[in-house]
Amino acid sequence: MCGLSGEIRFDGRPADVAAVARMSEVMSDRGPDGSGLWSLGPVALGHRRLKIIDLSDRGAQPMTDSDLGLTAVFNGCLYNYRELREELEGRGYRFFSTSDTEVLVKAFHRWGIDCVDHFKGMFAFAVAERDTGRLTLGRDRLGVKPLYLSQDADRLRFASTLPALLAGTGVDTGIDRVALHHYMTFHSVVPVERTILTGVRKLPPATVRTVEPDGTVTDRRYWQPPYTRSALPDHAGPSPSEWREAVLDRLRVAVRRRMVADVPVGVLLSGGLDSSLIVALLAEEGQAGLSTFSIGFSAAGGERGDEFAYSDLVADEFGTDHHRIPVDDTRLLPALEHAVRAMSEPMVSHDCVAFHLLSQEVSRHVKVVQSGQGADEVFAGYSWYPPLAGVSREDAAVTYAGEFFDRSHGTLAGILSPEYMPERDVSGEFVRRHLAAPGADTALDAALRLDTEVMLVDDPVKRVDNMTMAFGLEARTPFLDHELVELAAACPPDLKIASGGKGVLKDAARGLLPAEIIDRPKGYFPVPAIRHIHGPFLELVRDALTGQAARSRGLFDQPYVDKLLAAPDEHRTTLGANALWQLGLLELWLQAQGV
């Protein structure tokens, strides 16, 4: 896992290597173990390295294979790189390193853009072809690894983070009104390709983009599982027990794949079903002395701030080397400000700061961790899924919006300033189009597809990447193994929403985990001081929303802001998030980015 950057020019001028160097330097936290720059005419590539596989300098990037005429930068991990290397060696390729980056280069030479069909892992990459001047960008199936873009008539720039693009300068930092509508409506999610800034876009997941020297762009979307029963895999029959065994088998493979590393691998253990199941399967694999990590905060607003009782239970059950990380409020405010600066996009979820502080501590012990993110979207663990179970496809969008949207289009008109308010309900239109698309049998199937392809990518997955990589920590997510996601997509939705959600996963866990873990109430990373804003946190938000920068920008109706500030804990979104924090976080992020 690393940070990549680059530029390709279309105007006949050489690439701006200095701009690429600035972009690369901003990402030093993502890659503290090394850096590199490469340029050839109109193309330049930059890289910051975190050494996980092949710790020698032979694995350094940008990586050039002069015989093949290819130079690449890569962020992520190809979990099946050893198998691919063996296959490529059988086809006559010779290797100078033991890195997965070199496997990517050879695979690209062998299969072209179809190389992604052979990859099992998380990745974003750029490959420059010496002889054609062509540049190819690619992103993994579930968007675990980010890739941000800024393009005009003269050039295209790209980087692993949005702040890196800003460091290159020349980016239109105006507010994208459609993205702002999504942020305020779609639970702070801004779907690809947009970001909150007009001049920055995202390469969609499961996409390979070919950029010709004249600026012509061609996209290939290479993966989208059908959410239909016709997609049932041969080995999984219709009975619940067969589904349970199939899910457990695929998850075993996913967890095993993510142990590939030349450094130790730990686990972020919340004490919930998902992370606990990862620990159980690693113990089943014979992993002794596994390092596990849990975090907790001070209580606030009558809400408990830790789940140590559950994580301790799992750690004791499997004999892990467990690290409890209690955080008092004196550490929380500075960490919050640093976490906001580390965000590639504004992310409202209060567990961002939890992941940030957890990552800071974990990075002192290991460089790689497995994490349970993605299970709720893939296996239907959220509260808004059961109401969709009996709804027709025609009524799916109305039900989904009622359960998930923070507010209606009409209500938003009283919150945003008129110049930032789109005339149409662009968020509602987006969801209606997505839910109505073919390839899903039921309304619940369509909602799970929407959340897996959109919400998952641009909320929890992005959150984990940004907060862990702020400390050079690589997070791997077995529940986002694409073969497991394919299986889950084909699984009948009633098996997923059973037992209060994630029913088939809970059944798979029985016999592996204590019942107290499987049948416990659903938990989150609790950060009460942000859910219940008071004291210095309230003053931070107040300053952000009433200062000169916010007043000049004028995003929000000032009387509405004043109302929230007067009663900071009374106003909640549909899912119970703090409405004041949603506004304040956006302004805090914009000001942190200097826009």
DSSP helix fraction = 40-55%
Determine the number of helices (DSSP H or I, runs of at least 4 residues).
25
Low-confidence segments, given as residue ranges, are none
Biggest sheet, in brief? Answer: 6 strands, antiparallel
- Counting DSSP E segments of at least 2 residues, the number of strands comes to 17
Strand numbers in spatial order across the main sheet: 2-3-1-9-8-10
Counting helices, strands and paired strands, the structural category is: alpha+beta
What's the gyration radius in Å? Answer: 23 Å
Strand content: 15-25%
Shape summary: globular
Spatial separation of the terminal alpha carbons: 28 Å
Mean pLDDT: 94
Structure description:
- Keywords: Amino-acid biosynthesis, Asparagine biosynthesis, ATP-binding, Glutamine amidotransferase, Nucleotide-binding.
- Pathway: Amino-acid biosynthesis; L-asparagine biosynthesis; L-asparagine from L-aspartate (L-Gln route): step 1/1.
- InterPro entries: Asn_synth_AEB, Asn_synthase, ASN_synthetase/amidase, AsnB_N, Asparagine_synth, GATase_2_dom, Ntn_hydrolases_N, Rossmann-like_a/b/a_fold.
- Its EC number is 6.3.5.4.
- Helix 22 packs across helix 25.
- The two termini are 28 Å apart.
- A hairpin with a 3-residue loop joins strand 8 and strand 9.
- It is built from 25 helices and 17 strands.
- The strands form 3 sheets. It has a 6-stranded antiparallel beta sheet with strand order 2-3-1-9-8-10. A 6-stranded antiparallel beta sheet has the order 4-5-6-7-11-12, covered by helices on one side.
- With 595 residues, it is of the alpha+beta class.
